Fold this sequence. Notes:
Layout: E1 7-9, E2 12-14, E3 23-26, E4 33-37, H1 44-60, H2 64-80, H3 82-89, H4 96-120, E5 127-134, E6 142-149, E7 154-157, H5 165-177, E8 181-184, H6 190-202, E9 211-213, E10 230-235, H7 237-244, H8 247-250, E11 255-260, E12 265-268, H9 277-291, E13 303-307, H10 311-325, H11 344-359, E14 362-366, E15 374-375, E16 381-382, E17 393-397, H12 403-407, E18 414-420, H13 423-431, E19 436-442, H14 446-456, E20 460-466, E21 485-488, E22 495-498, H15 501-505, E23 508-515, H16 517-524, E24 534-535, H17 536-539, E25 556-559, E26 563-564, H18 567-577, H19 582-585, H20 587-592, H21 603-614, E27 622-633, E28 642-654, E29 660-671, E30 676-687
Parallel strand pairs: 7-8, 7-10, 8-9, 10-11, 12-13, 12-19, 13-18, 17-18, 19-20, 24-25
Antiparallel strand pairs: 1-2, 3-4, 5-6, 6-23, 14-17, 15-16, 21-22, 25-28, 26-28, 27-30, 28-29, 29-30
Amino acid sequence: MTEILPSYLQGAWWTPGTDTDAAEVRDASTGxxxxxVSTEGIDLEGALTYAxxxxxxxxxxxxxxxxxxxxxxxxxxxxxxxxxxxxxxSRTGATRQDSWVDIDGGIGVLFAYSSKGRRELPNAKVxxxxxxxxxxxxxxxxGRHIYTRLPxxxxxxxxxxxxxxxxxxxxxxxxxxxxxxxxxxxxxxxxLAEAMVRIMVESELLPEGSLQLVSGGVPGLFEALRLxxxxxxxxSASTAERLRAHDAVQTGGVRFTSETDSINASILxxxxxxxxxxxxxxxxxxxxxxxxxxxxxxxxxxxxxxPAEAVDDVIRAVQARLSERVVLGDPRAEGVxxxxxxxxxxxxxxxxxxxxxxxxxxxxxxxxxxxxxxRHDDGSEGPAPDGAFVAPMLLRFTDPESAAVNEIxxxxxxxxxxxYRTLDEASALVARGGGSLVTSxxxxxxxxxxxxxxGMAAYNGRVxxxxxxxxxxxxxxxxxLPNLVHGGPGRAGGGEELGGIRAVLHHMQRTxxxxxxxxxxxxxGVWHQGADARPYxxxxxxxxxxxxxxxLSIGDQVVSGSRTVTLDDIExxxxxxxxxxxxxxxxxxxxxxxxxxxxVAHGYLLVSWAAGLFVDPAPGPVLANSGxxxxxxxxxxxxxxxxxxxxTAKQITPRETDEYGEVRWDSVLKNQxxxxxxxxDVLTLxxxxxxxxx
Length: 694
């Protein structure tokens, strides 16, 4: 019996009991068999049930921050063994640089979501969205929006071109949200995804049921999905539409998002003539997108849209750079800069689509469809009939409105060049692609950038502007980043991945909740005005600043005494700070202002005094004031007025990896008439435990 690439299901490695109809997967350069793939007899329904039971339970015990820490630890585990992945990756046709984009890029997503999760999410299990909606005059009835995790499983179906990054960029936000994952990599490169999952499993960091792997087909998968599950698909638009039409999605409540092939464009601005830094950056980027991963990127440039008079200049520059920089061959051979496509089937498909582009009016001006000579792993040069090699190609379309160039994608090292006469025409050509993941623009003219953005941004998920100022630091046209949305309208799938915390929230349900301040405090973990509070002076307790994080509770409060503001105080503050704005110093001018009754105290004087009213000065668990947010001045304070402050522990956020955490305090300044003078949040860093006595 042939050894078959295993799946990881229900906490164990699994292979089918028979190799009948197992598919062969071959080395992209040599054609040697590297794996056999089959899921004959697989229990997908059992895997989904296990994820909903064990995965939901184990992830549900953790807060956002605890999951975020695990993501970092998983990233470190993969980093420690990434050379194993590099070695395997070379069999897919990836050069060292290609593998860096896939492997290090995927690990980088784990690091990024770990960091963003700890910075931007609470150390809790519920995420509060937006502000408070006061639904009653007396403040006794409130509304808010919260996010809670979906109760099902995230099924992630990935494409062959990025077996590591494609899996991890979906896994990371699902894991951070608390939703278990079943990942299904594409068969031609699934052996690399299997190696990645094996490292993660062997790290013993994964909570039970949080990650499962299906190596091969998924028969009956959609029939086993139900409300609370979601599917994230990357692949062809035709497959996406077939899956989207399934009853589980149409009427069963299963969420479906897709990222599909798109006819991405790159525009050369009218100002970016030959010899300018923008022209040079444009050509470098175009060649990089044609050759990185052998052009097998959903974000690759398929249409180079340039001023009509610059078409010949661009063609010559592209030809020269390809000749200087590109060595086609086995990625394991010294000096090779571009490898083969992922499979001979992919090679044949790319050549078929190039033929269609030629039939549609494209003239091949760079490269050839003939089988190229390549550099073999032993350093020799010659043909490679069993390899999936295709040379970089650039086609010229004299008619930029040709249906072929705007509708047909050759998913390989192939781009087409189109000339435009006006910026409006350039924008219209972008739109002809039917919706793209990304369009880039090389220009140093802000007016050109604004005009193009106005005309074509709505047809793209991302737009990159490239000029002399950012060319060295730019991550490039084809690089999705964890903190920016990856997706696009129309043909690109209409979905969104990544985009920072947005991707986490895609795995959660937003719900409007209504109730009293006390109830809202319990639901959100954030104290609300009107909820139960405990002034320490009334309870004979300890000043909240004397409490460690372990002792402090939401609702612990300081109610200060009053302090009278005098004209002398105002003038002293003005002289000390240099803030002699007329509202503080000129009675006549201040009284003429519709917002003031006359001279008033500086707002920052009042905030400073408030700190003096609520602070406990002795050393203790409060380590530092780390910020002040959402400051609003409501009622002016005149000489003779009194102010006092109510400071309430609003939110407590322990840090998982430090001996302290953050406390957010609700601060309200009031005058002697009980009118609100100012509101703001005070942020402090507080030790988790009381320090031992010296």
